[in-house]
Amino acid sequence: MLTVAIVGASGGIGAAILNELASREDVQCIHATYYHSLAGGSVGSASGFASNTDIRWSKLDASSDEEVALWLASVGKADWLINCAGMLHDATHGPEKSISSFNSEHFHNSMSINCLPTLLLGKYARAVLRNSPCGVFATVSARVGSISDNRLGGWYSYRASKAALNMALKCLSIEWARNAKSLRVAALHPGTTDSRLSEPFQKNVPEGKLFSPEKTARLLLEQIGKLHESKSGTFIAYDGEEIPW
Ligand SMILES: NC(=O)c1ccc[n+]([C@@H]2O[C@H](COP(=O)([O-])OP(=O)(O)OC[C@H]3O[C@@H](n4cnc5c(N)ncnc54)[C@H](OP(=O)(O)O)[C@@H]3O)[C@@H](O)[C@H]2O)c1
């Protein structure tokens, strides 16, 4: 039976992952976090389906070292740690079309939400995952964080923060391959998914390419479930494609 910890389980993708896991018979406990509120959706035990899974909610700012340390200490042991926290736009700023609209505060916020949590979770996760026979730390990244795949430019802060996140995960996979060999690490690309984050940018998405959060959750969990040791430290899309860094 699996114990899973999900950061950002109040978001579109995180909530769908939570609900998918809560409907499975092989998941006994889910530690789920929100940051601002759970108002975006009635997730988990309140979502209208019967689940025997023990769901434990915590409020967590995943960019706070102290809060991450305390939360993971309260989690204790887990098999999978899945980080779904992220930010593309906020009330005052969206992704930059050109460098002239670059804004320092937006850049710092992007790094703080898209990259920093993975470093802090990595700092404390080894002790939580290391006794699991199938320990995985996966962070939801984005294909636009791939440097070699960048053909359109723009979105400076989001792209840079996801590229930094990818580098952090790669470093962690190398370190854990030395001192926690059973653990696997992956950056995941979810595909464009209908959520608060993608909502302002959905009109140009080709037909059939906007996934429901439920579909994305099923596909990402399939990738996590079959993550082989040889694939640890890679960037994997929802369909199993290995994305170049
Ligand atoms: N949707 C897409 O098309 C798409 C495409 C590529 C990649 N992604 C990536 O997928 C991930 C999930 O995105 P989404 O579409 O589900 O977005 P979303 O619905 O906006 O959810 C974002 C989540 O991040 C949490 N969060 C924000 N700041 C946080 C902090 N400091 N500490 C802890 N949690 C924090 C939010 O918590 P609260 O709501 O409680 O504040 C929410 O749970 C992100 O990393 C995003 O970059 C999404």
Report what the structure shows.
With 245 residues, the chain is α/β, with parallel strands linked by helices. It has one domain: 3-Layer(aba) Sandwich (Rossmann fold). The chain has 6 helices and 7 strands. Strands 3-2-1-4-5-6-7 form a 7-stranded parallel β-sheet, with helices on both faces. Strand 5, helix 5 and strand 6 form a beta-alpha-beta unit. Helix 1 packs across helix 6, helix 3 runs parallel beside helix 5 and helix 4 runs parallel beside helix 5. It is globular, with a radius of gyration of 17 Å. Bound molecules: NADP nicotinamide-adenine-dinucleotide phosphate. The site of NADP nicotinamide-adenine-dinucleotide phosphate (NAP) has 30 residues, from helix 1.
Offer a concise description of the structure:
It contains 6 helices and 7 strands; from the N terminus they run βαββαβααβαβαβ. With 245 residues, it is α/β, with parallel strands linked by helices. It has a single domain, classed as NAD(P)-binding Rossmann-like Domain (Rossmann fold, 3-Layer(aba) Sandwich).
Instruction: State the fourth-level CATH superfamily.
Output: NAD(P)-binding Rossmann-like Domain
* Overall structural domain count: 1
Give the helices and strands as they follow along the chain.
Answer: EHEEHEHHEHEHE
**Average of pLDDT:** 95
Can you lay out the helices and strands and say which pair or pack?
Layout: E1 2-7, H1 12-22, E2 27-34, E3 54-59, H2 65-75, E4 80-83, H3 104-114, H4 116-129, E5 136-140, H5 156-179, E6 184-189, H6 213-225, E7 234-237
Parallel strand pairs: 1-2, 1-4, 2-3, 4-5, 5-6, 6-7
Helix pairs in contact: 1-6, 2-4, 3-5, 4-5
Residues 7-8, 10-14, 34-37, 40, 60-63, 84-87, 113, 140, 142, 190, 192-193, 195-198 line the site of NADP nicotinamide-adenine-dinucleotide phosphate (NAP).
